[in-house]
Amino acid sequence: KQHGMIGNIYSMGLALQALEATVKFYAPRKWNCAQAFSVVYGHDYRQPMAIAQVLPALVGRSYMEAADLDCASTTLHPLLSLSPELGTTEVLRAPITVHYSIINKLQGTPFSYTTTVQVPGGSTLLTVLQEAAKENPQTFSFQTEQTSWGPMVVSIHGLAADSEDRTYWQFLSAGDPLSEGVGSYKPRDGEHIQAVFSTY
Questions:
Q1: Is it the case that residue 75 has pLDDT exceeding 70?
Q2: Which of 79, 91, 149, 187 is most exposed by smallest CB count within 10 Å?
Q3: pLDDT tens digits for 79-118?
Q4: Closest by CA position to 116, among listed 99, 134, 137
Q5: Count of alpha carbons within 13 Å of 45, Cβ hemisphere only?
Q6: Are 129 and 142 in contact (CB under 8 A)?
Q7: 123 and 54 both lie in a single domain
Q8: 37 CB-near residues (< 8 Å, 6+ apart)
Q9: What are the residues facing 65 on neighbouring strands?
């Protein structure tokens, strides 16, 4: 994709590992290594699974070579955030406005509801969903399941995703799927997020 993204931010770690390991097989076809790594360096990874997948590419070693890695002398790129700083104080952030819609045209009685909520700047999408549910629980109630990639929304407005029906809740901004999950994605002020009941 443009700007060095390979798939989405979750797939970047595995994609970089695969491309680095097989680079000689892709000649003369080229991929922009520096551009792809700049995407990784610019992202604040917080989920253990994403960190585990991107680390081998950043240190230039595979998992099989990890036993030989001298952690004391290895320096990772400074923009990679792997552990929170201790003793920091929470900074009050100006509130932002986020428009949030839930849409179902796939199963049962169709519905489409939109609300506008205010959350502190830098909040995750999960906070937006929680605020919408707090203000109007009958319409915007939702349920999540914890996964190794963070919380996954499995039900909104009483309509649950089902692997047998191959249905799920897809989150979009300006018609494009979000590159991160609800526990990581941070909406911008004025952004319109849509949760659309979809099939795969």
A1: no
A2: 91
A3: 444 444 434 444 568 999 999 999 999 999 999 999 999 9
A4: 99
A5: 26
A6: yes
A7: no
A8: 4, 16, 57
A9: none
Q: Is 143 labeled as ligand-binding?
A: no
Residues 56 and 137 in one domain: no
What tokens does 34 get?
């520096």
Higher pLDDT, residue 122 or 13: 122
First-residue to last-residue Cα distance in the chain = 21
Q: Is 96 within 8 Å of 123 (Cβ atoms)?
A: yes
Q: Mean pLDDT for the chain?
A: 81
Flag whether 113 is marked binding.
no
Range of the domain at 140: 95-199
**pTM, 2 dp:** 0.62
- What stretches of 48-138 adopt beta strand conformation (E)? 95-104, 111-120
Residue 53 marked as a ligand binder: yes
Residue 82 lies in a domain: no
